[in-house]
Specification:
The structure is a homodimer of 208-residue chains. With 208 residues, the first copy, chain A, is an alpha/beta fold. Chain A has helices at 8-17, 25-37, 40-56, 91-100, 127-135, 150-163, 188-196, 201-206; strands at residues 58-59, 66-67, 81-88, 105-109, 141-144, 169-172. The first copy, chain A, has a four-stranded parallel sheet. In chain A, a hairpin with a 6-residue loop joins strand 1 (58-59) and strand 2 (66-67). At the A-B interface, helix 1, helix 2, helix 3, strand 2 and helix 4 of A face helix 1, helix 2, helix 3, strand 2 and helix 5 of B.
């Protein structure tokens, strides 16, 4: 559909909006016309927030999480436990773990998982920098917190091999029945793992 | 969900993006992280396009279509037929009619249709300015091109009454079977109208 725009400014905005994931040209036009119907200040605030974010947000030189400074607030915090590093796939996963409020260590953002199908090998990920970080000494435990998928497990194993000779404890997230899920609808592999790794019942209310 | 953002710039962008229609906080975060993964120039271009559009786009003083100048390119064009005015609901409808390449007159954008349910009365629409435009003299035909809904028909009738005493021809879009549609799935009212308003078969290929 080749739209007839009476404004080159509108056309440019529609073109840029349609580059967003899941936004086609029709949706982009709908968004642009919505922005035009709003107050000028609202539309300007949106545009400026995007520019400021893209210009201002960098990546932490230690954990590769997004940051506005050379080192992110987590890595430079004096209250976080620097001996534990949780290896996650993405910036979003850091937010998700932070939301649990159950973790006080640091992170290491890989930027993805090994996936030959998508052409992603270990070199495209922040694995070498993780090894360097462990070699530097302070890290006592590396928690592998990648997705429980084939690619995640492959990446876990690759990292395990890379860190193998270093004096560091390597753990992974517990596999088990999701809280709120019915046994009937839990797959057999998960159930098997949850049996093997069963925990003391008393611990489940003591740890709250 | 109260996300833990490690960057105030990211948080601001997510907040602004989540004001868009159909964009929740989760989608806004997905969009923001996508923008961060792209080249800096791509993200900045998006933000600046939105700011420039919102600041630069005004409404035509004659037809109320969007315009970058006091009078839009259509109204100020010397090749358009100024004696015909097509009354449409929105800026988007102007684009849709322009895309048909079947119309060479001018437009009048109402900004909606009369809808008591949504609290939209004639005063919130550009109906008075349409009447003024017709009173000014040059207009010979007003084409009512609103949606074939209850609200559209009500608005058509209201405009018809307002223009009633003025020396102007008032027409409306033909109602009939949609091109490509099967008779079996066309509703009875439309079929009835398409019988009453049947046209000469020869005209259907002569007019192409």
């Amino acid at each position: 559909m080749n739209q007839e725009f009476s404004s080159i400014l509108l056309e440019t905005a529609v073109t840029e909006l349609s580059r967003l994931p899941g936004v086609g040209r029709k949706t982009a036009l709908r968004l642009a016309l919505h922005i035009l119907r709003q107050d000028e200040s609202t539309g300007v605030a949106l545009g400026e927030a995007i520019v400021n974010m893209r210009r201002g947000v960098k990546y932490c030189s230690v954990c590769h999480n997004i940051s506005e400074t050379e080192m992110c607030p987590l890595c430079s915090s004096s209250t976080r436990d620097k001996s534990t590093v949780c290896v996650v796939e993405s910036v979003k996963d850091v937010m998700i773990f932070e939301n649990t409020r159950q973790y006080n260590g640091l992170y290491h953002v890989l930027g993805g998982v090994i996936s030959p199908m998508d052409g992603i090998g270990p070199d495209q990920l922040q694995i070498a920098s993780l090894v360097d970080r462990v070699k530097a000494g302070d890290v006592e435990e590396v928690i592998l917190a990648l997705s429980a998928t084939m690619e995640g497990e492959t990446t876990n194993f690759y990292i395990y091999r890379q860190l193998g000779t270093l004096p560091v404890k390597i753990t992974q997230l517990a596999r088990g029945v999701s809280v709120g899920n019915e046994i009937e609808y839990t797959d057999e592999i998960t159930l098997g793992r949850s049996l093997i790794n069963r925990t003391l019942f008393a611990d489940s209310f003591n740890s709250r």
